[in-house]
Each structure stands twice: as C-alpha cells, then as structure tokens.
Amino acid sequence: MKTEGKFIALTGGVGGAKLASGLAAVLAPEQLLIVANTGDDFEHLGLTICPDLDSVMYALAGINDSRRGWGVKHESWQFLDALKQLNGETWFQLGDRDLATHVMRTHMMAGGSSLSQATLRLTEALGVRHRLVPMSDQTIRTFVKTAQGELPFQQYFVAQRCEPVVTGFHFDGAEQAGVQADLARWLGDEQLCGVIICPSNPFVSVDPILALPGLRTTLAAMEIPVLAVSPLIAGRTIKGPAAKMMAELDMPRDSLGVAQHYLGLVTQFVLDEADAALAPAIQALGMQTLVTPTLMRTARDRQALAHTLVDALS
Ligand code: FO1
What we know:
Elements: E1 6-11, H1 14-26, E2 32-36, E3 42-44, E4 47-49, H2 51-61, H3 78-85, H4 96-110, H5 115-125, E5 131-134, E6 141-146, E7 149-152, H6 153-159, E8 166-172, H7 181-187, E9 192-197, H8 202-210, H9 215-221, E10 226-229, E11 232-233, E12 236-237, H10 242-248, H11 255-261, E13 268-271, H12 279-283, E14 288-291, H13 299-313
Parallel strand pairs: 1-2, 1-9, 2-5, 9-10, 10-13, 13-14
Antiparallel strand pairs: 3-4, 6-7, 6-8, 11-12
The structure holds ligand FO1.
C-alpha cells in the first residue's frame, strides 16, 4: 500500500466502481476520496434511488453483483414479484436487499439528513472504510436529448434500453448546485497528488460532475495532474452505451475521441495496450499517455491498474 499523498477519484457506474475498489485496495482510507455521479438519481415509488453511489458502495463493500453490473449479489426478488401482482411499476428492478438501501436512504433524508450524511451512514453500516461522497448535496438530474425529445436518464437507460439516438445531454440543477463539501476541501488540500477520472461514461457519468459550477476550471487550473482512464478498449465499452453515444454524436468512436472530449482538463490519459497505436495522436493533443492493461476482470486486475495509476501520479 502506498503510504503518502491523497487522491480523488471521480466515478460513475460499473467501470468507476471497479477502479474505485482497486484504488481502495492500494490506498489507505485517509488517502482516497471517491466521488460519485448523482445525475442518474431519481425518485421512484417514493424512494430516492442513487444508482452510481450504490454501485460504488456495493463494490467497496464486496457485495456487488458483478455479472449484472448493478445491485447486490445473491439478490432475491420477492418485493418485485409482489409489486407486479399489485400492478405496480416494475420496469426498474429493485431487489429485496437493494430495496433496504433505498428505504434507509429515503428515511434518513426525510428526517433531515443530507445525501452525504445518508451515504456515510450506509457505507459505515456495510463496513466500507474509504470515504464515498455524492458529487453534490443538491439535486441534479441528467436528461438525455434524443431524436424523440428529452428523456429523464433512467427512462432512456432502463425503460428504453439506450435505444433512442442521442443528440446531447442536460444536467438539470447543476448550475445552482454546489460541489460536495469534502470534495471542495480535498481540492484545496496540499497533500493532493492527483485526480483520477475513472473509466466511466464521459457524457453521463463524468460530465455531470464536471458541470458543477467552478469544478472544471478549478481542476484545469490546479498544478497537480488530472488523469483519465479511457472507458473504451478497441473502440468498445465493457458495459454501457458510451461507444454508441460517441457514434451518434459524430465523434471518433475510440480512446482518441475520449481524449478529445477531455481536452483542456486532462493532463495524463491512460489507454489500453490494444489502443497503443492511438498514443501519438493523443500526445499531439498535449496529454501525456500511459499505455497499460485497463480491462478489470479480477480483483488482481483492478489493483494492478490502481497501482499503475498511483505510481504515475506520485
Ligand atoms: N439497470 C437496468 O438496466 N435495469 C434495471 O432494472 C436497473 C435497476 C437498478 C436498481 C438499482 C440500482 O442502483 C441500479 C439499477 N440499474 C438498473 C442500473 C442503473 O440504471 C444505472 O443508472 C446504470 O447502471 C448506469 O450507471
């Protein structure tokens, strides 16, 4: 384990959760702040659902369902079955164990807790030692602009299975929101060695975080490196619609396209060995490149990538 310096990880869903758990294995709790996108959050059946926060939390607790990519492993579905019998909405699947998280969060927040406070209590209860925070304590909701009009994120992602053609994104509430308090504090910490943008969807996982007022300019102005790991390997994502979105947005559907998207912000760009041929074009954008295996199938892969990134930033 590396014993010095602090690191901030900006994360979204599956890829972010994997790298966050690798980083948590190689860094001490006081060295790592994990920040999750909350643009995917929504109110459903009266509950506050925070999919990215929960994906990261479950991965850090070692209870995530890695095959499905969301929710808790060894899940049961009695609530959903009962809901179906009552003609309730079942398009968004809530497992029994996962449901307890949403009920607890909603209950705590109804009692006056902030999302950060609720997240802290949930992570502590699950034995997570590293600090996981939402990007903001104000409500921000991602809307996907499509050929059929603007869709709330989960309508696009789950109900319509990412099928509509994407033309853009809107992060409702971002302009009025504030950066989460621990994130703001860590950004000013002189022990901060670097910011890691996890291999999450650049448009709907990372951009909502970067849309927070002042955050992008603060990061770009900092003297410490901002490192991004490409979520694409050989033009494809491991999971999720990033590559499809890039094609629909007329962008190069590869790691060069991702690097171009982060231009002006990222100083070090990490790409998979399969994409080594793109490194010179990315360097021509003014970024340093690091070519390394980025596929994270096992805990060993996640820790190896985390080690490589921490070494690169130290
Ligand atoms: N994704 C799906 O594709 N179908 C679902 O029914 C679904 C339910 C669900 C429940 C809780 C939760 O935390 C996440 C859930 N997800 C589901 C994933 C969710 O849509 C995430 O926003 C995506 O994984 C994007 O990060």
